[in-house]
Structures are given as structure tokens and as C-alpha cells.
Amino acid sequence: MIVSRNPYNGEEVGSTKEFTKKEIQDALEIASKRFKTWRATTFAERSKLMMAAAQELKKNKQEYAETISLEMGKPITQSIAEVEKCAWVCEYYAENAEKHLENEHIKTDARKSYTSFEPIGVVLAVMPWNYPFWQVFRFAAPALMAGNIGVLKHASNVMLSANNIQKIFERAGFPKGCFQNLPVGSKEVEAIIRDTRIKAVTLTGSKPAGSAVASVAGEEIKKSVLELGGSNALVVFKDADIEKSVDTCVQARFQNTGQSCIAGKRLLLQESIAEEFLELFSKKVRELKSGDPMHEETYIGVLAREDLAEDLENQVLKSVKQGAKIFLGGKRNGTYYEPTIITDVTRDMTVFKEETFGPVISVTKFKDEKEAIELVNSSDFGLGVSLFTNDIEFAEKISPQFDDGAVFINELVKSDPRLAFGGTKISGYGRELSIHGIREFVNKKTVYIS
After folding, report:
1. Is 90 a known active-site residue?
2. What is the mean pLDDT of residues 187-204?
3. Residue ranges with strand state E in 141-261
4. Which residue of 45, 47, 249, 335 has the fewest C-beta atoms within 10 A of its own C-beta?
5. Residues 92, 415: contact at Cβ < 8 Å?
6. Which of 56, 86, 261, 369 is catalytic?
């Protein structure tokens, strides 16, 4: 059995029977057979079902959100927002998939020549616990609308949420086998990827997990998309609106209790405004309400597992030994780690070099734009960067100098169904969302008519 436990109090939330090898094979066979009929459906038919999925998410958002909060500790208001965002991505692809995948006609010496975008088959999604609904739906909505079939290997601590996602598609009326949850452990993933019925794999998770999955997919010559970790920088220039920037930076770092790949983890402050910014920033962080994730007023919950809180604590302690200073917080109690600000951080310290997956932010000062760009790009990660300045022309001018997959100006880095999402360097490759996401798992077929 795969057991789900509430990280806030340690109580068992529920359990799911783990699939046997035969049950895995049966599920893959159902998926493979379903593809033959699903690919022949029209965009109008798929759109109607996807809109029904969006309505199901909205109708029962409280039920689904409560399971998320109980399983991984996300504050309930943020869990509800996550479910609502999943409805948005379903609606977006229901409305735009046909346009995104219409034939691209190209003028050549042929009577007619074009590129068509056709489904490839069964796609495996290996997904994490930190956004147990959103990470899955931003894959599933475009994949199903493109005519593909989805099978999910979710994180073991959010298996009840994984079951709910399959239930949502079933309640919406999708034919059996269009989307299936596979309740299995990590040890089964390699064999599933190697199965000839699996045509591609997408993973959101850590670098080790991504490396392992990509290696197997590469050996089998199968397409893979990886969305891995991040250590996003929040760069505040001297002409920024301090108050607005502080509010955005607090949200960027501490929503979802800091357990987000796109959270702003490195706060880079121009020297002349660093003291003023840090004073107001720390005041706002102190005001964040910690407590039971099921209470509506809670903004900071707990980390999803105690070992994750221990890892975060060790990263902070190592950095202090390296010369950093704890400006605020720094204490752990079981799965709870209090909101923490670390100052005097240099690029060779642990909290700067590694991804801190929890409510800890490192603070580094810079002299000018050249040093700011060097600090941002010195990271091994490349998911996104936020720039805060009132000089928009300046921000746009320097944005090409950042290595990241996204540059947000006067805003936190966030995923939006209308925009391409993905990183560079060890943050992964490939793109999700928008027209670029739906075209990752299709056969881009050239048709030439003489």
C-alpha cells in the first residue's frame, strides 16, 4: 500500500493499493488501445470534454483542495487557487488547441506543401508533490487535446490527489483509458519508459530524477521534456518602487511555503537601496501567518516531509559556517521551518549555489548592472529571473543577457497557459504551455503534393 500522511500532524490521510506488474501491463494496454480511437476524435469532441473537466474542477474545488492540503501541507487557500488554475489551463487548450495544431502551409515548388501536427500516442508523466494538480494538468490538458493519451506516475505522498485527477477526467466523460494514474513506486519507472507502448515521457522534479529518466528515454530514442529545479533571482535595482517590489518578492519566495521550482530564492539588492529594502522586506515576512494548512488565514504551512525540512536546515547551517548571517528565522520544528532571511551571502555559499526548497531566501548585494547579470548567470540553474526597476526600456535592453528561460519585469516568475514555460542549464529542456507546449508531443509531419 502507498500511504498518504498529513505532514502537519503525521496522521494517515489514506492509502492506495500499489499496482502489480500485471496491473501495470493491463493499464498500458488499455491506454494503447484507447489511442487508436481517441486520435480519430475531432477537436470539437475533445474540447467539449475538456470544458467539462474544467467545470468539474470548479464545482468540486474545495474537495480536491482539501486533499492537496492534507497530503502535502499547502495552505488551503493556495490549494484552492491551484485547482482553479487547472480549470484555466483546461479551458485555454479547449479553446486554442485546434488553432495551435492547424496545418502550417509553406510555399515551395509543390502544388501544396505543409506541416501537420499529429498525436504520437501514450505519453508518460512523472510528476512531483509540490503542485500535485497543476504540474499534471499543464501536461494533461495539451496532451489530450492533441489526441495523445496520458499515464501518470505521481509522487507517492500525493497518491490520493493522483487518484482524484483520474476521477476528474472520468467524471468529465473522457473515454476509459484516456488518462490513467499508475500507483507505482519509482523502481517501476524505467520499465514503463522502455515499454514499446510508451512513446514519450515528461518529468517535473529534481536533477537526479530528470537525469535518470532522460537517460532511459535517450537509450530508447524517445522524446523527453524535463522541467527541473530552479534558483531564481529577484534583482532589485536602485530606481525600483520599493514597496511594490517588496510585496512581490515576499509572494515570489514564500507562497507554497517556498516549495516551488520557480520561487525567487536569491534576492539581489543594489547597494544604495539594500538597507531600506531589507528593513521593509523583513517586516512583511514577520507578518506572514504560520499554522495549520487547513486554516484559511495560514500563509506559511509545513514542508511536505520532515527530511525535506532537515535538508533545508542543513543548507542554512552550512552557509552560516561559510560566513552568512541569519537575519531572521532559522529554526525548525519537525516539518515546520520558519520563514528565514540569510544575509551577507556570496556566490560560493550553499544557499546561493543550491536550490533551497522551502521558506529561506538569501540576500546578496551588487554594485551595478554588470555585477547583477554576472550573479544571476553564475547559477547552474536557468529557470527564470525577475527584474525590478522603473526603467522598463533598460530592463528590456538587458533581458537578452540573462541565460534563463524567462525574464519577468516587475513581477514574480509564474506559469501562464498562454506563455511558454521551461528552463535552461540544469533546469531542464523543452517547453510546456502555450503553442510551444502542445507541440512538444506531436509528430511534425511534412506533407508534399506534387
Report:
1. no
2. 98
3. 149-153, 179-181, 198-204, 223-227, 232-236
4. 45
5. no
6. 261
Quick one: which of 43, 71, 82 has its CA closest to 294? 71
Is the dihedral angle over the CA atoms 95, 404, 126, 214 positive or is it negative? Answer: positive
Of 37, 34, 55, whose CA–CA distance to 178 is shortest?
34
129/22 Cα distance (integer angstroms): 26
Give Cβ neighbours of residue 346 (< 8 Å, ≥ 6 apart): 322, 323, 352, 364
The reply to whether 261 belongs to the active site is yes
Instruction: Give the model confidence (pLDDT) of 274-313 as tens digits.
Output: 999 999 999 999 999 999 999 999 999 999 999 999 999 9
CA atoms of 299 and 295, how far apart (whole Å): 9
| Per-residue pLDDT, 62 | 98
Task: Cell 510585496: give the residue.
Answer: 247
pLDDT at 395: 98
d(C-alpha 426, C-alpha 415), whole Å: 18
Query: φ, ψ for residue 118 (rounded to 5)?
Result: -115, 145
Start-to-end CA distance of the chain, whole Å, equals: 59
CA 192 to chain centroid: 22
Secondary structure E strands in 310-403: 325-328, 332-333, 336-337, 340-343, 360-366, 381-382, 385-388
**Contact indicator for 106, 97 with CB cutoff of 8 Å:** no
Q: Which pLDDT band holds residue 128 (cuts at 50, 70, 90)?
A: very high
Torsion angle, alpha carbons of 197, 423, 396, 346, to 10: 180
Of 416, 357, 364, the C-alpha closest to 381 is 357
Contact 433, 139 (CB under 8 A): no
Catalytic, out of 56, 71, 91, 227? 227
The pTM for the full model equals 0.97
- Mean pLDDT value across residues 159-175: 98
pLDDT in tens, 60-103: 999 999 999 999 999 999 999 999 999 999 999 999 999 999 99
Domains in the chain, please, with CATH? 2-228+427-449 (3.40.605.10), 232-416 (3.40.309.10)
Q: Which amino acid, residue 37?
A: T
C-alpha cell at 198: 510508451
As a whole number of Å, the CA-based R_g of the chain is 22
Query: CA dihedral defined by 325, 300, 291, 65, rounded to 10 degrees?
Result: -160
Q: How confident is the model at residue 449 (pLDDT cuts 50, 70, 90)?
A: very high
Q: pLDDT tens across 361-383, in order?
A: 999 999 999 999 999 999 999 99
Residue with cell 530528470: 210
